[in-house]
UniProtKB/TrEMBL annotation:
Gene Ontology terms, MF aspect: FAD binding; UDP-N-acetylmuramate dehydrogenase activity
Annotated gene: murB
Pathway entry: Cell wall biogenesis; peptidoglycan biosynthesis
Protein name: UDP-N-acetylenolpyruvoylglucosamine reductase
PROSITE patterns reported in the protein's UniProt record: FAD_PCMH
The species this protein was found in: Zafaria cholistanensis
Length: 357
């Protein structure tokens, strides 16, 4: 249904962004396809969003059509010793995780508390606490705007990488070739979690890495850990007005990692490659928690309206009244500082719509 004037700041978790040229919501698969086809036939630029947790929209807004995916619903199908859970693209992600845990299905529990919609999770290969979507994803159904037809992708078809997929690589300025309609996950029944790979989470559960716990216990601890870092949406907590992690963890040649101080966290990332901690790099470059707040060294960047979270250096937060320009000013300062200190360039995780670092 069309809306005459819609500020995109009201649809994003960072709460920035100007008006949409035209705004539509689609609550069913048929409505999604019809809206996309109509925009394409009219030659209109098209921005797709749902939960709005992984994009920063320019203060000037988006001049084309903005389509919000609002389809919801879940279906379970018994498989060969597993359960297939098919979810509509607009269904809130954490509700899916909660449903799976309540039904005694495991595989998603470490991804608890991540904001946004289910349809966005395979695009970014969303991950946290040693898990990511590619580990449980069975398939995706999507509208192919080039072919003008629904296409089904297997896990292998999507070419998953670290915070990456075919779906992301074929998206330009928030406008995807493939508009996700449903996502299907292959989950284990029985109530025990997937092996807990992440050391911090294992410690919280009193486990050794690789051991299992009740999926409900894993979900509880993940939510507690995320909340402690301002990574669970809370209208009363300005630290949660963000895109979550603004920068991805850089993957670098092993020689680059070896040049860093001995206490720099690092993780194997394939032959000759190492994944570093962006949060560590940011902190060691002089950008501590709360950088940008009134009274801090970075206050001049955005007048205190935007800052690094007071709980986690990876999140850039809207402290109230911030603009997209404010968010980006803090991001640029951090990126430049890390490059100057360590010679490593950080890359943004959220999509930047009509703006750039």
């Amino acid at each position: 249904m069309p809306v005459s004037l819609q500020l995109l700041s009201s649809l994003t978790t960072t709460a920035v962004g100007g008006p949409a040229g035209r705004y539509l919501e689609a609550g069913t698969e048929a409505e999604i396809v019809a809206a996309v086809r109509a925009a394409d036939a009219a030659g209109e630029d098209l921005l797709i969003l749902a939960g709005g947790s992984n994009l920063v929209v320019a203060d000037a807004g988006y001049p084309g059509t903005v389509l919000r995916i609002a389809s919801t619903g879940l279906q379970e199908h018994a498989g060969d010793g597993h359960v297939l859970l098919t979810v509509q693209a607009g269904h809130p992600w954490d509700q899916v995780v909660a449903h799976a845990v309540e039904r005694g299905l495991s595989g998603l529990e470490a991804l608890s508390g991540i904001p946004g919609s289910t349809g966005a999770t395979p695009v970014q290969n969303v991950g946290a606490y040693g898990a990511d979507v590619s580990q449980t994803l069975e398939g995706v159904r999507a509208w192919d705007r080039v072919a003008g037809a629904v296409r089904t992708f297997t896990n292998a078809d999507l070419g998953f990488g670290y915070r990456d997929s075919l779906l992301k690589r074929t998206t330009t300025n928030g406008s995807p070739r493939y508009v996700v309609l449903t996502v299907t996950f292959r989950l284990e029944a029985g109530g025990l979690s997937a092996p807990v790979a992440y050391a911090e989470l294992a410690r919280a559960l009193g486990l050794a890495p690789g051991e299992r716990a009740a999926a409900a216990d894993v979900r509880r601890e993940v939510l507690r850990l995320r909340a402690g870092k301002g990574m669970v949406l809370d209208p009363a907590d300005r630290d949660t007005f963000s895109t979550g992690s603004f920068f991805t963890n850089p993957v670098v040649p092993a020689a680059v990692a070896a040049s860093l101080p001995d206490d720099a966290p690092n993780y194997p990332a394939g032959e000759g490659l190492v994944k570093l901690s962006a949060a560590w790099l940011i902190d060691r470059s002089g950008f501590g928690k709360g950088y940008g707040l009134p009274g801090s060294a970075g206050e001049h960047l955005a007048g205190g309206r935007a800052s690094l979270s007071t709980k986690h250096t990876l999140a850039i937060t809207n402290r109230g009244g911030a603009t997209a320009a404010d968010i980006l000013a803090v991001a640029r300062a951090v990126r430049s500082g890390v490059a100057e200190r360590f010679g490593i360039e950080l890359h943004n995780e959220p999509l930047l719509i009509g703006c750039a670092l």
